[in-house]
Amino acid sequence: MTQAPYVCNGCEKRPKCNLEKSFYSAVIAENEAKLLLRDSRSGISLDEDEIQRIDGIVTPLVLQGQSIHHICCSNKDSIMSSERTIYNYVNDHVLTAKNIDLPRKVRYRPRKKVKTRFKVDKTCVIGRSYNDFLAFMESTEHSAIVEMDTVEGRKGGKVILTLSFINSSFMLAYLRDANTSKSVTDIYQMLWEVLDKKNFMELFPVILTDNGSEFSDPTAIEFDEENNRRTHLFYCHPSSPFEKGACENNHEFIRRILPKGSSFDHLTQEDDIQLMLNHINSYQRKKLNNKSPYETLAFLHGEEVLRRLGAEFISPQYIILKPELLLRNKTK
């Protein structure tokens, strides 16, 4: 095409023309225009002499400990660039000064100490795995299973040990100052003494728990001081909370009263934890034919066992499953 617009898009002779053709595409033209505009605005628009001049002003002052802000304010007539631009020059290694030379540009945070999370020793799991649990339940008449877990509050603070009875949905919970195996075995020794041998073995024939370090002394739980067996303990697969679902469901009730992240440090076993348990265990459950865990355990093992465990029944109209339960208790 020898005249404007110098493209062959609308030329009538195009089908028979043997000359090299040129076509206009609005999309291609727009993309090329954007690319040209972007390239014109990117990079450094200074020559080498100007860069050396700015470097001669900025770098010596930076090495004296001055900040870019102070340098730009004190030499604005000489530098004639914004503070942000000078920071970009430093960051892009245009100037001799580096980010590490700036007083506040680079400030390394102390590295976090990675806590070593000790799990149950593999030797403890031998004969106590989840597969061993399934095989044991098939070969025995035991039907009562207790699921054991830990509920954490503030990191490094007090924790709660929970024991959930699958048949009745009844739950025990004990406040511990630290998440240690000794604190767990001490609780079982206390229950062994409070309940006596017969009641303990009826309530705790089989215990199922996870691989937390606080459960790393199964022998002290399974056997008494005279090395007589009093229960059987098994471990779930790692990262498989669904294998002890009853326990996880009961934790939902705890979290209604003690939301996740709240501290347990101000709580006490007698005034707070036991009060919370009484309300949770008195709450009627559909799976129990609209009976409460308290009523179900009383039917299975008798009121005397509940008395020894310190449990009390709360009338349905007075049950509170909100944080205000413990707040009310503090204000009384």
Helix content bin: 40-55%
CATH fold category name of the largest domain: Nucleotidyltransferase, domain 5
Oligomer: single chain
- Structure summary, number of beta strands: 5
Mean pLDDT: 86
Largest sheet: 5 strands, mixed
What is the CATH architecture term of the largest domain?
Answer: 2-Layer Sandwich
Q: Which CATH class of the largest domain?
A: Alpha Beta
CATH superfamily of the largest domain: Ribonuclease H-like superfamily/Ribonuclease H
Number of helices: 14
User: N-to-C SSE series?
Assistant: HHHHHHHEEEHEHEHHHHH
**Rough outline:** elongated
Low-confidence stretches: none
Strand portion = 5-15%
Distance between the termini: 97 Å
Number of domains: 3
Strand order in the largest sheet: 3-2-1-4-5
Alpha-carbon Rg, integer: 37 Å
**Helix vs. strand class:** alpha/beta
What does this structure look like?
It is elongated and about 105 Å long. Strand 2 and strand 3 form a beta hairpin. The chain is 43% helix and 9% strand. It has three domains: 1-42, no CATH class; 48-101; 126-331, Ribonuclease H-like superfamily/Ribonuclease H (Nucleotidyltransferase, domain 5, 2-Layer Sandwich), CATH 3.30.420.10. It is of the alpha/beta class. The chain has a five-stranded mixed β-sheet with strand order 3-2-1-4-5, with helices on both faces.
Give a quick summary of the entry.
With 332 residues, the protein is of the alpha/beta class.
What is the topology?
Elements: H1 26-41, H2 48-63, H3 68-74, H4 76-79, H5 83-91, H6 122-125, H7 130-139, E1 145-152, E2 159-165, E3 171-176, H8 181-203, E4 206-209, H9 218-222, E5 232-235, H10 245-257, H11 269-281, H12 293-301, H13 303-308, H14 324-331
Parallel strand pairs: 1-4, 4-5
Antiparallel strand pairs: 1-2, 2-3
